[in-house]
Description:
Strand content: under 5%
Helix content: 40-55%
Distance between the termini: 55 Å
Number of helices: 2
Shape: elongated
Radius of gyration: 15 Å
Structural class: mainly alpha
Order of helices and strands: HH
Amino acid sequence: MQYNVKWIINGNITIAADSKEQAEEKIKKTLENIIKENKDDFENIGATAIQGSANKINNE
C-alpha cells in the first residue's frame, strides 16, 4: 500500500534585529544553509517549501 504523508515543521525563536526584514533574513539564511547541507535528505522526505515571518514583540 502507498500513503501520502503531509507534514509541517513549526518553529519559534526570539532574536535581536533592527527590523522585521533583518530578523527574517537572519533565520532565512540559517535555514537555507541547513537545507543546502542536507539537500538529499530534504529531497528524500519531499520537502518543497519553507516559509516564515517575524512579528515585533516589544516597543524598544
